[in-house]
Amino acid sequence: MISMRQKMNKKNLLRGELIGLETEIVESENNANKGIKGKVIDETKNMITIKGKKTWRLIKKQNMFKFGKTSIEGRLLVDRPEERIKTRSIKWLEKRKM
User: Fold this and answer.
1) S-S: 49 plus which of 1, 42, 71, 96, CB 3.0-4.6 Å?
2) What is the DSSP string of 16-48?
3) How many domains does the chain have?
4) Are 39 and 52 in contact (CB under 8 A)?
């Protein structure tokens, strides 16, 4: 998990653990998902589970997440958490996910 001392920037989010972080859905292919807020409680290759007023299981690729002040496209998060940590760079990851 990203510690409070680390900056919550795109690089740290892509390489760090998301479980335990507060998030919000700022854009989504499904309008019903916009505005969902809560804590990430689970993550798989293609899904993220957020617990707020209730628990939602969302497809990463269909949503844009906001962690703190940093927004990140879900398509960049599509990978197993342990595999994402090994990625070379953000530019490499963005090219791979297009």
Assistant:
1) 42
2) S--TT-EEEEEEESSGGGTT-EEEEEEE-SSEE
3) 1
4) yes
